[in-house]
Write a structure and sequence with these properties.
Blueprint: E1 2-9, H1 12-28, E2 32-39, H2 41-46, H3 49-55, E3 58-59, H4 63-71, H5 87-107
Parallel strand pairs: 1-2, 1-3
């Protein structure tokens, strides 16, 4: 059994999709368990990303980088509000996320 540890924002919008995705992922990868810790946005800001990288296999990066995405003009077809991804946006991210998950699984 492989256990991956992730960190997410302590808000239902931050962690509920990750939990649901992890459960769906487990259906096709029954030997992998993904457990999620949560922390407030302030706690994310208080801990250097280098420390998060040392402790977690999966890290969600949300709030601090959304302004940059907006400034750089997130393409309208990939967002519902100019900042947050829609289904098409998540589909673009899927292969990148899967590559990271598969890399983490293969390191165990």
């Amino acid at each position: 059994m492989i256990e991956l540890k992730g960190i997410a924002w302590d808000h239902p919008r931050g962690y509920e999709p990750l939990i649901a995705t992890s459960e769906e992922f487990k259906k096709s990868h029954p030997n992998v368990i993904i457990k999620w810790d949560v922390r407030s946005l302030k706690e994310f800001g208080d801990m250097p990303i280098e420390h998060l990288i040392e402790r977690y296999d999966l890290i969600t990066i949300d709030h601090p980088y959304m302004g940059q995405a907006d400034k750089n003009g997130l393409k309208k077809e990939f967002t519902y509000d100019g900042v947050h991804p829609n289904l098409a946006g998540y589909k673009i991210m899927e292969p990148i996320v899967m590559k990271a998950i598969n890399k983490a699984i293969n390191q165990e």
